Amino acid sequence: MRGLRGAWRHESAFRQEVCASLLVLPLAVWLGEDAVQVVLLGASWLLVLITELLNTAVEAVVDRVGEEPHHLAGMAKDVGSAAVFMSLVLATFVWGVLLWARFA
C-alpha cells in the first residue's frame, strides 16, 4: 500500500490514470457483453496502471543512483516510458475491437 500511496503522491500520470479508471472500469462492466469481454476491458486498463507503477519504480531507482547524465540511465527511463505507451496502445486496441464488435 505504501507503493500505491507513493505513486499517487509523486506521479501525476498515475493519478490521471487512476482517475480515468473510475470511469473506465465501470464502463467495462456496462459495455462487456459477457464475462470474458469485461475481463479483457478491465485487465487491459489495469495493465496500464501496473506498467505505470513499474515505470515509476525504474525512474526512482535511476534517480537514486545518481543525478549525473548517463546514457544507460536515460535509456532505462525511456524504455520504461515506452512500456507505458505500449500498454496504452494495447488497451486502446482491446477497447477498440470490443467496441467495434458491440456497436458495428
Number of strands: 0
Largest sheet: none
Strand content: under 5%
Domain count? 1
In brief, what are we looking at here?
The chain is mainly α and 104 residues long. The chain has a single domain, classed as Helix Hairpins (Orthogonal Bundle).
Description:
By secondary structure, the chain is mostly helical. The protein has a single domain (2-103), classed as Helix Hairpins. 89% of the residues lie in helices and 0% in strands. It has four helices and no strands. The longest helix has 33 residues, at 71-103. The mean pLDDT is 95.
Secondary structure topology:
Layout: H1 2-10, H2 12-31, H3 35-65, H4 71-103
Helix pairs in contact: 2-3, 3-4
Comma- or semicolon-separated keywords:
single chain, 104 residues, mainly alpha, Helix Hairpins, elongated
